[in-house]
Amino acid sequence: MLMLPWCYPYNKKEIRNHIEALRGQQDGLSSAKHVKREMTGRSKDVLIAAKNTRIKELETENKQLKDELVKLRGMIYDKF
User: Fold this and answer.
1) Average pLDDT score over the chain
2) Rounded Cα distance, 40 and 67, in Å
3) Per-residue pLDDT at 49 exceeds 70
4) Which residues form a coiled coil (predicted)?
5) The pTM is what?
6) Where are the alpha helices (DSSP H) in 1-80?
């Protein structure tokens, strides 16, 4: 494998210009992290509502499972 120094692309004028042009194009783009930080109040409200709905569903399921467990424990106790 041919090992080139990290500065090799910058030694070639054409390649360096191309790299700088590509970096210039990226300057106007928002990164994913930057976009995520700019969540609007409405999108935060939607996210919170979805999480609250999911929490309620899980709480309901948890209660049902606990009730079922109590019934099954009672059935086992009655057998002995």
Assistant:
1) 81
2) 41
3) yes
4) 48-75
5) 0.48
6) 8-11, 13-27, 32-37, 41-79
User: CA neighbours within 13 Å on the CB side: how many for 62?
Assistant: 6
Q: How far from 74 is each of 34, 63, 64, CA to CA, in Å?
A: 55, 17, 15
**In contact, 9 and 19? CB cutoff 8 Å:** yes
Contacting residues for 9 by C-beta, under 8 A, at least 6 apart = 15, 16, 19
Q: How far apart are CA 55 and CA 77, in angstroms?
A: 33
- 51, 44 Cβ separation under 8 angstroms: no
The dihedral through the CA atoms of 28, 32, 37, 42 has a sign that is positive
Residue ranges per structural domain of the chain: 40-80
From residue 27, give the alpha-carbon distance in Å to each of 3, 20, 30, 39, 79: 30, 11, 8, 21, 73
